[in-house]
TrEMBL record:
It comes from Cetraspora pellucida. This is 20794_t:CDS:1.
């Protein structure tokens, strides 16, 4: 199932230890307070939060949400928005609506935050499900 695949992906990420001196971004999602789960109803809002280390100034960042398809050996990511949202690193979060025209129930998604000037400096959230 896609849920178990997402968990496997999470475990593989936790074994990777980045160089603490290199620029890094960390991404988290707001949890549903009532259930503490990563399940969000259509038309609800989702907040993507980020933190960074070893990044000077306040660069522009790009936020994109991808629909996850459990393909083998790696999942396939499809852009949800035609172009990424933009923000400044110092904003620390951005909130968007789970629009029924773009999101489908019982599908899984991830959010990715990257520097606009260097796509390699990026992070992907845990998968979340739309209900």
């Amino acid at each position: 199932s896609l849920l178990s695949y997402g968990i496997v992906m999470q475990e593989s990420e936790s074994t990777y230890v980045p160089d603490p001196n290199k620029p890094q971004i960390k991404v988290t999602l707001s949890h549903d307070v009532s259930t503490h789960s990563l399940e969000y109803p259509i038309n609800s809002t989702q907040t993507v939060k980020w933190d960074s280390s070893n990044i000077s100034e306040d660069p522009e960042i790009l936020i994109q949400v991808y629909k996850l398809f459990p393909t083998i050996p790696e999942p396939t990511y499809l852009d949800v928005w035609s172009s990424p949202m933009t923000a400044r690193l110092s904003q620390k979060s951005i909130t968007f609506c789970i629009d029924p025209a773009l999101f489908s129930p019982d599908e899984w998604y991830v959010a990715r935050v990257s520097l606009a000037t260097d796509d390699k400096i990026s992070a992907i959230s845990d998968p979340f499900c739309v209900k």
